[in-house]
């Protein structure tokens, strides 16, 4: 195996053929599918016991809104990363999912290899979006920041390197690209991000992007 066997994935989709196909693709790629369910309430109920590292979640479920499922899963399994896999690419659906706690968002037209790579990147904390949607999310964060920007309480002190990494994170640069730009290992970049999350008492890279944009760290100069 290539190290992915330990990655536990739960699939939540109400279409049996699609759900089974996604689970099969994941298993064939070396991921451990710990559950494949069709209802949001069931996913929320079992998340704490099956402990998925990544949840592949359909936005449109018959029993609960996708945003409620995200919040329910994260309440019982806060370390899980949520990757939305939806037929909808509507702006509001994407923003609602991210604000609820989703790490990434792919539309179902994504190719198999693109999807499998997205699961791996999601597990690493990278926000993964169908092309065009990442700019939408960053744009919304910037819009909100322009309305509410304020210094607020004194921010915890970050090292020069942590601030440098944070600036690139705020611009939507991936961990791999940050590592290449700063001549660091991928693991070192992840460590800087984790240290920064801890200092700022934030929980995800999406929170980190929002924090950085609110303070203008995404701006050049």
UniProtKB/TrEMBL annotation:
Q: Which PROSITE patterns match?
A: HTH_LUXR_1, HTH_LUXR_2, RESPONSE_REGULATORY
Query: Mind telling me what this protein is named?
Result: DNA-binding response regulator
* Record Gene3D superfamilies: 3.40.50.2300
> For the Response regulatory domain, which residue ranges apply?
8-123
**GO-annotated molecular function:** DNA binding
* Keywords noted in UniProt: DNA-binding, Phosphoprotein
**A matching Pfam family:** Response_reg
* InterPro entries reported in the protein's UniProt record: CheY-like_superfamily, NreC/VraR/RcsB-like_REC, Sig_transdc_resp-reg_receiver, Tscrpt_reg_LuxR_C, WalR-like
Q: Which organism is it from?
A: Dactylosporangium sucinum
Residues annotated as carrying 4-aspartylphosphate in the record are 58
Instruction: Quote the CDD domains the UniProt record gives.
Output: LuxR_C_like, REC_NarL-like
All copies of domain HTH luxR-type, residue ranges: 151-216
What is one GO biological process annotated to this record?
Answer: phosphorelay signal transduction system
